[in-house]
Design goal:
The complex is a heterodimer of chains A (265) and B (173). Chain A is mainly alpha-helical. Chain A has 7 helices and 4 strands. Chain A is 66% helix and 4% strand. Chain B is built from 2 helices and no strands. The chains are: A mainly alpha (265), B mainly alpha (173).
Chain lengths: 265, 173
């Protein structure tokens, strides 16, 4: 029986070797195509294939076009339109891309032999910092220095407001960490737990098959563990979509604060 | 797959192996940028365009249908008006014809009645003449009858002058 290594599934392996590139300040940087990069590319390719096939201008939509329009309508009505409002349209491509990319990366991780790109902290941190910087850039572009009004609670004693401003700023600056860790933790935890229960299926099953005796009860544990694996895998599919939606929704919430700053909250 | 990259220090999470970070960061940003450009330039405009075109078409069609319905309604009203005018005209024509016919009939009747009255008058005059004539013969007949009766009863002849005289006293004409 192989060693139980629940973290082995997260190991990044080189797939196509590129020579390391010297980058000033960082030293040698390895940009080889790894399994992680490979699955990013697979996800992006699948998304592109789907939309090249689905994004048609038919007056009466076919099946694929109907799905694409439903997804677009969901993002338009619930996310950018529902959370940001009338000013949300310009951010629709960003939110749409984030949602679909994260959803596809999560779901690809659940395919047999798949690699979960979103279980890599490097990836979730990259997307989180990118989202955070976009919100920051939009905030300053729309409001200039009035952006700092975001942190200033109105209708209070100035001393109280100053105190709360510190807390508001900390909670704002902590966002990229919460974004990155939420997705990373969900994906990591889901896959580790499934792995652990899967080892129970094998381990208890092998134990239960040794001769006749009380150890045959292991077969029951093995069966129960298998049911757990099934249930957790189903749950992970739900989580894969929900986490992508949560990311997109939080992006909209953050954008809404800076885009509608003059409207009040 | 190729050989595993140097694993992170004993049993730790592979995700914390910082040697794997630059490549993943770089490729994630590149792939995201490509996807974002495709979405903002191609996919979203196409899908939104299709939805907008459909909404435009639907609202346009509804507008056309409304316009057509209004036109049909106006035509219906015009037709109803024309029908009423035509009906009134027909009624008038019918009424005129009726009165005309009545007048003609009355005139014809009057002419016939006049003709009849004339014929009646002529006939009455003829009857009166015939009667007068007949009445004038009554005296002569009476005289002749009286002469005949006298001659048969008495055997004597009475002259008509004598009979006439007696008759005058007995039967004043």
């Amino acid at each position: 029986m192989a060693a139980i290594e629940p973290m082995e599934q997260f190991l990044v392996r080189r797939f196509v070797d590129f020579p390391p590139i010297p980058v000033p300040g960082l030293g040698m940087v390895d940009l080889s195509i790894t399994n992680s990069v490979l699955f990013m590319m697979i996800a992006a390719t699948l998304i592109c294939l789907f939309f090249f096939a689905a994004a048609k201008r038919e007056l009466v939509p076919g099946r694929l076009q109907a799905v694409a329009e439903m997804l677009y309508g969901m993002v338009d009505n619930v996310l950018t339109g529902g959370i940001i409002g009338d000013r949300g349209r310009p951010f629709l491509p960003l939110v749409f891309t984030l949602f679909l990319l994260i959803a596809f990366l999560n779901l690809l991780g659940l395919t047999p032999g798949g690699f979960t790109v979103t279980s890599q902290l490097a990836v979730t941190a990259t997307l989180a910092v990118m989202t955070f910087l976009i919100v920051l850039a939009v905030g300053f572009a729309r409001n200039g220095l009035g952006f700092f009004k975001l942190f200033w609670p109105s209708g209070m004693h100035p001393a109280m407001s100053a105190f709360l401003m510190v807390i508001e700023m900390i909670s704002f600056l902590i966002r990229p960490f919460t974004l990155a860790l939420r997705l990373f933790g969900n994906m990591l935890g889901g896959h580790v737990v499934v792995y652990i229960f899967a080892t129970f299926v094998i381990g208890l099953g092998a134990f239960g098959l040794q001769g006749i005796g009380l150890n045959n009860l292991g077969l029951i544990g093995s069966g129960m563990s298998f049911m757990m694996v099934l249930a957790l895998t189903a749950l992970d599919f739900v989580i894969a979509i929900i986490q992508a939606f949560v990311w997109a929704a939080l992006t909209c919430v953050y954008l809404n604060e800076v885009v509608n700053l003059d409207h009040g909250h | 797959m190729a050989e595993p990259t140097p694993a992170a220090g004993g049993g730790g999470l592979p995700q914390f192996d910082l040697a794997q970070w630059p490549g993943q960061i770089f490729w994630m940003l590149v792939i995201f940028a490509v996807l974002y450009v495709l979405f903002s330039r191609v996919f979203v405009p196409r899908v939104a365009g299709a939805i907008d075109a459909r909404e435009d078409k639907i609202s346009g069609d509804i507008g056309d249908a409304k316009r057509m319905r209004d036109a049909a309604r106006a035509e219906l009203e015009a037709a109803a008006g024309e029908l009423a005018i035509a009906r009134a005209r027909a009624q008038k024509v019918a009424l005129d014809a009726q009165t005309e016919a009545k007048a003609a009939a009355a005139a014809r009747q009057a002419v016939e009645e006049a003709k009849l009255a004339e014929a009646l008058a002529v006939a009455e005059a003829r009857i009166a003449a015939a009667r007068a004539e007949a009445m004038s013969h009554v005296r002569t007949i009476a005289i002749e009858t009286a002469q005949a009766m006298i001659s048969r009863l008495t055997g004597a002849e009475a002259t008509s002058a004598e009979v006439e005289r007696v008759l005058d006293t007995a039967l004043p004409s």
